[in-house]
From TrEMBL:
<keyword id="KW-0378">Hydrolase</keyword>
<dbReference type="InterPro" id="IPR007312">
    <property type="entry name" value="Phosphoesterase"/>
</dbReference>
<dbReference type="InterPro" id="IPR017850">
    <property type="entry name" value="Alkaline_phosphatase_core_sf"/>
</dbReference>
<dbReference type="GO" id="GO:0016788">
    <property type="term" value="F:hydrolase activity, acting on ester bonds"/>
</dbReference>
<dbReference type="GO" id="GO:0009395">
    <property type="term" value="P:phospholipid catabolic process"/>
</dbReference>
<keyword id="KW-0732">Signal</keyword>
<protein>
    <recommendedName>
        <fullName>Acid phosphatase</fullName>
    </recommendedName>
</protein>
<feature type="signal peptide">
    <location>
        <begin position="1"/>
        <end position="24"/>
    </location>
</feature>
<dbReference type="Pfam" id="PF04185">
    <property type="entry name" value="Phosphoesterase"/>
</dbReference>
Length: 412
C-alpha cells in the first residue's frame, strides 16, 4: 500500500486553488491523516471576503449561547454552537470546480475550507443520506421510499444529550409528511421523500413529536431569527434547487423548456460529453439557493461562536456511457484510489458501489479560512466529526477509529 499525499495548503487572498488528484494505487487504502504543520503564512479570512462583497454583515444582536458544560467532546474538537448541513445532489468535483454557472459555490471553495478528495458512500441518493445520519447505508442501493431504516441515527444520540435537531425540507407540504414519495402527487412534484433522511427512521416518523422536527424550510428563517435554531440542522433543498432536477415545474425548466429532467440525461452516451446546455440552469438555481440561504444563516443572530456550515453533495453523477455511476468510495469506511476503474469489476457486487468524488465545503465562524485538505474523506468522516464535537457514541462505521478520522483540519 502506498501512502497517499496529504497536503494542507494555505492560499493567499484571491489566489485560485487548482485541484490536482492525489496519486494512488488500485488497491484499498487506509486514510492517513497525519498532518504536516500548516504554513505560517497569514490566513485568509473568507468571511471578510463575503463582507467586502456585501454578502456578509454580522448581526448586531447575538442569540444567547447554549451551555455545553455537560458535553465532553472527543478528538480535540469542541461543541458546535450549530452545524448546518446543506445536502445538494448528484454533482461531482468534475462538474462543479470552475463551473461558471456556480459562481457562489466556487467562491466558497476558493475562500473557505475545502476537502478536495471527499467521496459519497454509494449510489443511489437515499443510502448516502442514511449513511451520513446513521453510520451505514445498511446495504441499500436504491431510493425506494418503502425502505425503513430501523437503526439508531444521530437524532437519537443528540436527544440523549439534550441537544436539538431538525431536518428542514424545502417544499414538504407540512412537518413530518410521509404520505407519498413525491409531492405534489402529479408530474409537477418538487419534493422527494428520498432526500429527507430523518423520515426513514421509524422511531422518528412514527412519533409525531419527533416528526415535527422535519418542517418546511421556511421555518429555518424563523428559527434563526427567534434564537430557536437547533444545534444540528440538516437542510434538504427541493429538486428545483438541489442541482439534480426532475420536475416539469422547476423554474429552470419553465424558463428554459428544454432543460432535461435528470442530469443523467445530459450525457451524450457516444462521446461522454454533456450535450444538454440547459442543465446550466439547474446548476444556477442550486448556486442561487446557497447564495440565498448561507448569508441568511451567517447574517442572523444565531451565527455564534463555534458555528459551522457544511455544503456537500450526496453522490456524483451517473455515467450512461459505462452504465454505472462515476467512481468513488464503496459502502464501507474504506475509500478507493482515485484511479479505481469500473473496468475492474472485482469490487462490484451489483454495479452500484461507490458514491463518487464530491466537494465538501466548510464555513466555520471561528476558522473562516481557506484550508484545503487532500486527505481522503467521505460522509462517515463528516458524521464522525459531528459525533465527536458533541461527545456522542459513534454510529456504524464511524466507530472504526483506524479507518474513520474526524475532519480535524477544519474543526481543531
Ligand atoms: C502519513 O503522512 C505523513 C505526512 O505526510 C507521513 O509522514 C507518514 O509517513 C504517513 N504515514 C503512513 C503510514 O503512510
Ligand atoms: C493514475 O492515473 C493517471 C492517469 O492515467 C496516471 O498519470 C497516474 O500515474 C496514476 N496514478 C497511480 C498512482 O496509479
Ligand atoms: C509541528 O508543530 C509542533 C507544535 O508546534 C511541533 O512540536 C513540531 O515539531 C512541528 N513539526 C514539524 C514537522 O515542524
Ligand atoms: C473574519 O472576518 C470577519 C468579517 O470581517 C470578522 O468579523 C471575524 O472576526 C474574522 N474572523 C477571524 C477568525 O479572523
Ligand atoms: C431496495 O433496497 C432494499 C434494501 O434496503 C431491498 O430490500 C429492496 O428490494 C430494494 N428495492 C429495489 C426496488 O431495488
Ligand atoms: C399538481 O398538484 C398541485 C397541488 O395539488 C397543483 O397545484 C398542480 O396544479 C398540479 N399540477 C398538475 C400538472 O396537475
Ligand atoms: C458529442 O456528440 C454530440 C452529438 O453527436 C455533438 O453535438 C457534440 O459536439 C460532441 N461533443 C464532443 C465534446 O465531442
Amino acid at each position: 500500500m502506498k501512502p497517499f499525499v496529504f497536503v494542507l495548503t494555505v492560499v493567499a487572498l484571491f489566489q485560485i486553488c487548482f485541484y490536482a488528484p492525489a496519486s494512488g494505487s488500485r488497491h484499498w487504502r487506509q486514510q492517513n491523516t497525519t498532518q504536516p504543520n500548516a504554513s505560517k503564512a497569514p490566513l485568509e479570512n473568507g468571511t471578510q471576503v463575503l463582507q467586502q462583497m456585501g454578502i456578509y454583515s454580522e448581526s448586531k444582536f447575538h442569540c444567547p449561547r447554549r451551555d455545553f458544560s455537560h458535553i465532553q467532546s472527543k478528538e480535540g474538537l469542541k461543541p458546535f454552537d450549530h452545524v448546518f448541513i446543506f445536502m445538494m445532489e448528484n454533482s461531482g468535483n468534475d462538474v462543479i470546480l470552475g463551473n461558471e454557472n456556480m459562481p457562489f459555490i466556487n467562491l466558497l471553495i476558493q475562500h473557505f475550507g475545502f476537502a478536495a478528495e471527499y467521496y459519497g458512500i454509494t449510489h443511489t441518493s437515499l443510502p448516502n443520506y442514511i449513511a451520513l445520519t446513521s453510520g451505514s447505508n445498511w446495504w441499500s442501493h436504491n431510493d425506494s421510499t418503502k425502505q425503513i431504516f430501523d437503526h439508531t441515527c444521530i437524532a437519537d444520540k443528540l436527544e440523549e444529550k439534550g441537544l436539538r435537531w431538525k431536518n428542514y425540507a424545502q417544499s414538504i407540504p407540512y412537518a413530518g409528511y410521509k404520505g407519498s414519495s413525491a409531492y405534489p402527487q402529479n408530474s409537477s412534484f418538487v419534493w422527494l421523500q428520498e432526500h429527507v433522511p430523518f423520515l426513514f427512521y421509524p422511531q422518528i416518523f412514527l412519533d409525531p413529536a419527533r416528526a415535527a422536527n422535519i418542517p418546511p424550510l421556511e421555518e429555518l428563517e424563523q428559527d434563526l431569527y427567534s434564537c430557536n435554531v437547533p444545534e444540528y440542522v440538516f437542510i434538504s433543498p427541493d429538486i428545483c434547487h438541489d442541482m439534480h432536477g426532475g420536475s416539469d415545474v422547476c423554474p429552470a425548466v419553465t424558463e428554459y423548456p428544454n432543460t432535461p429532467k435528470k442530469l443523467a440525461y445530459c450525457y451524450n452516451t457516444k462521446n461522454n460529453s454533456r450535450n444538454c446546455i440547459n442543465i446550466n440552469n439547474l446548476w444556477k438555481k442550486g448556486d442561487e439557493f446557497l447564495r440565498e440561504w448561507i448569508p441568511k444563516i451567517m447574517n442572523s443572530p444565531s451565527w455564534t461562536g463555534n458555528s459551522v456550515i457544511i455544503v456537500t453533495w450526496d453522490e456524483a453523477n451517473y455515467n450512461e456511457e459505462l452504465d454505472v455511476f462515476t467512481e468513488g468510495g464503496p459502502d464501507t469506511a474504506y475509500i478507493y484510489s482515485t484511479n479505481f476503474s469500473f473496468a475492474d469489476h472485482s469490487f462490484l457486487i451489483d454495479g452500484y458501489y461507490g458514491g463518487g468524488q464530491v466537494p465538501l465545503i466548510v464555513i466555520s465562524k471561528e476558522k473562516p479560512y481557506h484550508i484545503v485538505t487532500h486527505a481522503k474523506y467521505n460522509h462517515y468522516n463528516l458524521l464522525k466529526s459531528i459525533e465527536a464535537s458533541y461527545g456522542l457514541d459513534y454510529l456504524g462505521y464511524t466507530s472504526d477509529d483506524r479507518q474513520v478520522k474526524v475532519l480535524h483540519e477544519f474543526f481543531g
